[in-house]
Design goal:
Helix content is 59%, strand content 4%. By secondary structure, the protein is mainly alpha-helical.
Length: 710
């Protein structure tokens, strides 16, 4: 009569996959029935009361044949039954060991290791349960788990005692004890210091003495366990390498062995990798996402160990298998495995390009990857959204993902209110890079959050760098200006004033520039001078970006004006090194180019007809470029429009705002005339001539004359 397997109460709370895994001692130890310990793993599990076995569980079952045999062989062993049934806590197991050790045989030590590590793992699982899940457990079960929590020191001491005895009696180990013992030790987080290279060498000798017997059990598990224990079993590997084909190994054994070898960076028998990869390919014609992902991860590590010319072909094969496993919309896809696999595929593609001048065919993989991640975006935690975003290589894929993110927000499938300040900044960075037209929504949301106190002061301090980046982006894009200072501006200045030490060299240039652009001249924030002085000690590993160089040039012009007018001390003129000034000026000159050549040509023709003397694209006093300098009239004309403005509120973007502000207010010998081309193009020919005629008249007084501005 087939025996009924009894699971622990905790197991009943887990899903069907974990129920099956309770069959395995290495994952979750089974509390046996009162009729004995033996479990018939060869009996069919597809009955009315048991769920079907998935591939992951099947792999575990196949890789634990030695333990299954041991269970059957020792089903009537009273000590083993006591170890499993009568010791529910680590302290009970320790007491049982101390009292009965003299009666132990080597197989008992193997079961002790299993039971001990199972109790430790179950305690860790219990710690990860929610309060609701804990309350659903029987009270006696909760008491047992709680007694095991925090007993790691006692557990480590017990394992050390067990290992001490095994180390002294290694030669007495039997096959059914060796494999389970090695697997437990290789996966255990407890003390295993008593077992060293000498003991592992003796165990390898015993394996070689009865090599055929171990072949029938699970030789790949032995090699894999040895490698995890930092011991390379050269004799076993050499013996396996003598075989022309590894036909006795299934795909799980091949994967397990390959993973152990690449993790240990084994490189002494490169041809052994070839045989394993060939057998893996032969035995995995039909695979799934998980197995294809494992194969790709192995190849990614293998590229740093060997120079196998066929590695790229193997990579393409498993990429194609991977695509087959994810391309159908109704297939169950594991997003975490997909993300890891995407990173691996990118790495393999880079390797193929650099090492072999070949490229992998990734079109189908990329297409399915973007589709799946975009479809699942509302299922991700906030931090995973940004990790997935960074995993895309090209801008078009990132744009599709950002569009899905915005769509999910609009459909209330993602609640932006659940984002902390750091996560909000990451979201704004995504939008800023690919969908600026939607940036105003995030600006309004953040401004309202600060107004209503949704983000507390401590949250802003804890995420100060993110707060700094948000402030900078909104200044850069024209949402915060001298005329439009909102809650974001005031809250940031208030927070910065009390926490200048939190300002890092990664953000200092952006923040200083942002304060200069958004500072009201009537306020004249003292923070600007303090932060400018901090530039004297500026130092970081990464070079200044193009944007930072452009901003540094505008900071330099601002500082020159302050020093010239004796507002700042003359010592400030050397705060920015000359080399940095030169690099910043070169970058700004490339940036500050004529964006409206057709308009400039048309206006130049009109000025010629009006008999005006002018220079095009003239740099005024070594500061900013003007589109026209009217020599006789002592006036300059600058254009604004199009991409120079925020399309939502029509304010100039920060860099142009700072330029125009300087030309309007700081020049003593020129008047600045601003032509907004969005308005200019709607004027009649006569109106345009009339405007230019007035502009060509000699300037009156100092400064900017607003009547000349369209």
């Amino acid at each position: 009569m087939q025996q009924i397997i009894k699971f622990s109460p905790l197991a009943h709370k887990l899903n069907s996959k974990l129920l099956l895994r309770q069959l395995l001692f290495q994952r979750a130890f089974v509390i046996p029935s009162s009729r004995g310990l033996a479990m018939n793993f060869s009996a069919p599990l597809h009955n009315k009361t048991q769920p079907a076995i998935d591939e992951e569980t099947q792999e575990d079952l196949l890789n634990n044949r030695a333990m299954n045999i041991a269970q059957t062989q020792y089903q009537n062993d009273e000590i083993i039954r006591d170890i499993i049934e009568k010791n529910q806590t680590i302290s009970q197991l320790t007491g049982y060991f101390n009292y009965n050790q003299k009666s132990f045989q080597m197989i008992h030590y193997s079961f002790m290791l299993y039971r001990l590590n199972h109790l430790v793992q179950e305690a860790k699982k219990y710690q990860n349960l929610t309060q609701e899940q804990i309350q659903n457990l029987p009270q006696n079960q909760r008491i047992i788990f709680e007694q095991n929590i925090g007993n790691d020191q006692m557990a480590s001491h017990l394992q050390k005692l067990i290992c001490f005895y095994i180390a002294r009696n290694t030669k007495e180990l039997i096959p059914n004890a060796i494999i389970p013992m090695l697997k437990v030790l290789s996966e255990s987080s407890l003390d295993r210091s008593e077992m060293g290279q000498e003991q592992y060498a003796l165990i390898e000798e015993k394996v070689m003495q009865e090599y055929p017997k171990y072949i029938s059990l699970d030789l790949s598990s032995i090699v894999s366990a040895f490698l995890k224990l930092n011991y390379v079993p050269h004799q076993i590997i050499d013996e396996l390498n003598k075989l022309q084909q590894l036909s006795t190994m299934n795909k799980y054994a091949c994967l397990q062995l390959l993973e152990g070898l690449v993790d240990s960076k084994y490189n002494q028998k490169p041809e052994f990798y070839d045989k394993l990869l060939t057998q893996l390919k032969r035995s995995s014609q039909v695979t799934n996402q998980r197995l294809a992902g494992r194969a790709l991860a192995i190849l990614n590590k293998l590229k740093d160990i060997t120079t196998d010319k066929d590695l790229v072909d193997h990579a393409q094969y498993y990429i194609d298998r991977y695509v087959e496993s994810i391309r159908h919309p109704d297939q169950s896809i594991k997003a975490d495995i997909l993300l890891d696999s995407a990173r691996v595929v990118r790495s393999l593609d880079n390797y193929a390009r650099q090492a072999t001048q070949r490229t992998l065919d990734l079109d189908q993989f990329n297409e399915n990857y973007v589709r799946i991640q975009s479809d699942k975006i509302d299922k991700f935690r906030a931090e995973i959204i940004f990790v997935v975003y960074e995993s895309f290589l090209n801008a078009s894929d990132k744009k599709k993902f950002v569009d899905s993110f915005i769509r999910a927000l609009r459909e209330n499938r993602i609640d932006i209110r659940r984002f902390n300040v750091y996560q909000l900044e990451k979201a704004v960075q995504m939008i800023h890079g690919h969908s600026k037209k939607d940036l105003h929504v995030f600006h309004k949301f953040f401004d309202q959050c600060l107004e209503q106190g949704y983000y507390k002061q401590q949250q802003l301090l804890d995420n100060f760098s993110a707060f700094s980046k948000l402030f900078y982006i909104f200044v850069k894009e024209g949402f915060i200006t001298q005329d439009f200072q909102n809650n974001i501006y005031y809250q940031y200045v208030f927070t910065l004033n009390d926490n200048l030490k939190k300002l890092t060299n990664q953000d200092i240039v952006n923040v200083l520039w942002g304060l200069i652009v958004s500072d009201d001249e009537t306020v004249k924030s003292p923070l600007i001078a303090k932060i400018f002085e901090m530039l004297h000690e500026f130092k970081r590993d990464t070079p200044l970006t193009k944007d930072e160089l452009i901003q540094l040039y505008q900071i330099h012009i601002y500082a020159q004006d302050k020093i010239k007018n004796r507002i700042w001390p003359k010592q400030f003129k050397d705060v920015i090194p000359q080399a940095a000034k030169d690099a910043a000026e070169d970058e700004f000159n490339q940036f500050d180019k004529n964006l409206f050549k057709d308009y400039q040509m048309d206006i130049a023709k009109k000025l010629l007809k009006l008999r005006c003397t002018f220079t095009e694209n003239a740099k005024i006093h070594k500061t900013y470029r003007a589109d026209f300098k009217l020599t006789d009239a002592q006036k300059i004309i600058v254009f604004v429009g199009g991409e120079m403005k925020n399309q939502k509120n029509s304010q100039l973007l920060g860099v142009y705002q700072q330029k125009i502000s300087y030309l309007q207010t700081k020049l003593k010998d020129y008047q600045a005339i601003v032509i907004d081309l969005d308005t200019w193009k709607d004027k009649s020919e006569d109106e345009q001539y009339s405007f230019l005629f007035n502009a060509s008249l000699p300037k009156e007084g100092d400064g900017f004359q607003s009547q000349y501005s369209f």
